[in-house]
Design goal:
About 35% of the residues lie in helices and about 20% in strands. The chain folds into two domains: about 60 residues, Alpha-Beta Plaits; about 250 residues, TIM Barrel (Alpha-Beta Barrel). The chain has ten helices and 15 strands. The model has no long low-confidence stretch (mean pLDDT about 95). The chain has about 325 residues and is α/β, with parallel strands linked by helices. The strands form three sheets. Strands 7, 8, 9, 10, 11, 12, 13, 14 and 15 form a nine-stranded parallel β-sheet that branches. It has a four-stranded antiparallel β-sheet with strand order 2-3-1-4. Strands 5-6 form a two-stranded antiparallel ribbon. The relative contact order is 0.13. Bound molecules: phosphoenolpyruvate and manganese (II) ion. The site of phosphoenolpyruvate (PEP) has 10 residues, from loops.
Length: about 325
């Protein structure tokens, strides 16, 4: 349930209302927009007398919300969430490109790619230090050494870094990381989500391989409910019956998520496709569908990449794609954030 307060509602009356609701075991999420003040009520609201609440002269309106996600719900938070990271903005009206290798392999590899993607216009550097691989025999990432190399690349280029966390026990090592990525396979690692709710760092949350939109938003809800408002949703393709492609990019997730939530939505065309030649058309589809950004895998030598080489663009291909993206983003009147 959401209570919409009148503009300039009396503070004493508001506090009395909050006290009354809290005494009934209701948890309140406050949302102060430019024009409206909302209170999202979580808990057993069935016992509340709506007519009595409406009789309170600071209450403008009351709406019941049936969706189980409250903090992520646009009905409770009508204004778009715009997340600022090191002077860059992610969210509606802006368009951010995150680029870099699937995994950090060496200092030379990472700095070469970082400098190149920066020149092409990427605003963030990605790179996995801890890799969630299907096979335990595949390259698992350079781990803490990878984090060190990401910090070096950040220092050298000024690009904020985006990298994946696997467990809440790693949080202390992620101090220098600007955006913490939660991979598709960890979307429902609830202990991790709860721990990320306790920190204030932006979290890039990827949709699980077979997750519904509601499950995806419920995972975001874990982070938001813990007190961290900085969540970026990432659609990266889902499992379907089609074997000709690694995953199926669910392009409808963009308008759906943006309708039901206020959080920024970005697309990962690399993991959705699994094939580098498909990254360009899927990126264009993402822009046309209203996405707020892209996360793209780029490698200096895709054929010899230790992970996901088949879906990685080389640096020239990425540069060409960025030229095309900038024109389309300008056409959509978004700012390269
Ligand atoms: C990645 O970004 O390299 C990755 C492993 O992505 P996902 O979790 O979407 O598979
Ligand atoms: Mn990858």
């Amino acid at each position: 349930m959401v209570i919409i307060l009148k503009q300039n509602a009396d503070t004493a009356k508001k506090n009395a209302l909050i006290e009354n609701l809290t005494s009934l075991g209701i948890v309140i999420h406050h949302s102060q927009g430019t024009h409206t003040t909302l209170m999202g009520l979580v808990g057993d609201t069935s016992r509340l007398d709506i007519n009595l609440l409406l009789a309170n002269d600071i209450v403008e309106d009351i709406r019941r919300i049936s969706e189980p996600y409250k903090a992520a719900n646009r009905r409770f938070h009508p204004d778009d969430t715009i997340i600022s990271v090191a002077g860059r903005k992610i969210g509606e009206g802006f368009f951010s490109v995150i680029a870099g290798p699937c995994s950090v392999e060496s200092e030379e590899q990472l700095t070469t790619i970082a400098e190149s993607v920066k020149k092409s216009g990427a605003k963030f550097l990605r790179g996995g230090a801890f890799k969630p691989r299907t096979s335990p025999y595949s390259f698992q990432g350079l781990e803490n050494e990878g984090l060190r190399l990401l910090s070096l690349a950040k220092k050298a280029t000024g690009l904020p870094i985006v990298t994946e966390i696997m467990s809440e026990s790693q949080l202390d090592d992620f101090d220098d990381v600007d955006v913490i990525q939660v991979g598709a396979r960890n979307m429902q690692n609830f202990r991790l989500l709860k721990a990320l709710g306790q920190c204030k760092k932006p979290v890039l949350l990827k949709r699980g391989l077979s997750s519904t939109i509601e499950e995806f938003l419920m995972s975001a809800e874990y982070i938001l409910a813990g007190g961290n408002p900085n969540v970026i949703l990432c659609e990266r393709g889902i499992r379907t019956f089609e074997p000709m492609i690694r995953n199926n990019l669910d392009i409808s997730a963009v308008p759906l998520l943006k309708k039901h939530s206020h959080l920024p939505v970005i697309i990962d065309p690399s993991h959705a496709a699994g094939m580098s030649w498909m990254v360009e058309p899927l990126s264009k589809a993402a822009i046309a569908a209203g996405a707020d950004g892209l996360i793209i895998e780029v490698h200096n030598d895709p054929k010899n990449a230790l992970c996901d080489g088949n879906q990685s663009l080389n640096m020239t291909e990425f540069d060409r794609l960025m030229g095309d993206i900038c024109a389309r983003v300008a056409f959509e009147k978004k700012i390269m954030g």
